[in-house]
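WARN retry 2 of 3 for item q-0093 after timeout on previous attempt; input resubmitted unchanged.
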Amino acid sequence: MLLILVTFKLNTKYMSRLNVALFFFGCITIIAQKPKVDQTRLENRILELAQFGLQENGETERVAFSDADVAAQHWVVQKLKDLGLQVHIDFAGNVIGKREGKSSTLKSISFGSHIDRVPNGGNYDGCLGSMASLEVLEVLNENKITTKHPLEIIIFSNEEGGVMGSRAIAGHLGKDALKVVNSTGYSMGEGIMRLGGDTTRIAKVARKKNEIAAFLELHIEQGGTLENENIQIGTVEGIVGLKWWDVEFTGFSNHAGTTPMNARQDALLAAAKFIVSVNEITNSFDGAQVGTVGKIKAEPGAPNVIPGKVVTSLEIRDLSSEVIEKVYQAIKTKGEEIAEASNVQIEFRALDTTADPAIMTSSIQDAIGASAEKLGLSTKKMPSGAGHDAQDMALIAPTGMIFVPSQGGISHSPKEFTSAEDMANGANVLLHTILALDKKLD
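OK item q-0093 returned
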């Protein structure tokens, strides 16, 4: 600013009044300019990350614990070191990068996402939040902005295979989970070791409640609401809880040609009626709850044998645990009625792969909305129907989540796409929400 004033003093006598006015307007504009992310650089990072696991067909495979996942993790670590962060891999395989703040007593503002993918997935799920977090840090460096709070970027391990890294940080990654094997053939425990973690000390990863000042995650919507309504930013109100069951029908296997229709104990017929009832019952409740049967296995599986045993899945999601329970009880009652009428047995087995609903912190929702508004972006408050690392982080810290549109509502697919402009919008909201929280939080 001193240089600007000196320059102005030296050149005023050669400038017209109009030029002076334009000069001052230009200075004010420069000073008032908000820091913004580099849209091209962000898009290039997304494309560069997609090279890890690139296949001959042009698509990328990077399931957690794979060689591609390990290589991508090393690449992220180096990028963070290049940005001047203190970087380490914790005992759960999470990549942690820290940027010092002006105060050594304030808690960290944390943000991040994941870089692992589902099999046959896309380039944006999780990856956008991770690459945008790198971009935010680079913009702060370029603008020589030092926040009061320390900043912490977290690239979570194995999100797609059970939010492993965030569960460990939240302190509820059980020992049984470490035995689960994913499509790479490695168990979670083996995968943690491959990523540089240590399963013998994983309990030390857990953070105390409110140890973190705030946590933010930017993510693609994975649905079509924002695109359909032409909205640029979604402010997530909460992440739905989900519960899974195996539902087993036991009848009697018998010859399909010699057993009369009225004498059959057809487990598959009962299961079919049950599947229809799941859809009908879920729709009978007011609200946005969803109920799904996504898997079915019939035994013995021969065309000339009446199925004697069938196992189906059942998944129910909603922002309310009470609603999930009400829908489940109604489905269970109907299932028992169907089983009795079909002369078969039915059993519901609750599975451990469940998550409670997580409501995002209202003050952080407000900060996200205000940041978007200042940037001239349209917003909508909305739930997340998918699970995220933010769901676990909400157990230990004030948490907020930002959505940007997914083209066609497509996700978990190679056709998944979010435009560079939408990615930059989300990254700018993330940047300015962090700056706003840095001023607001003690």
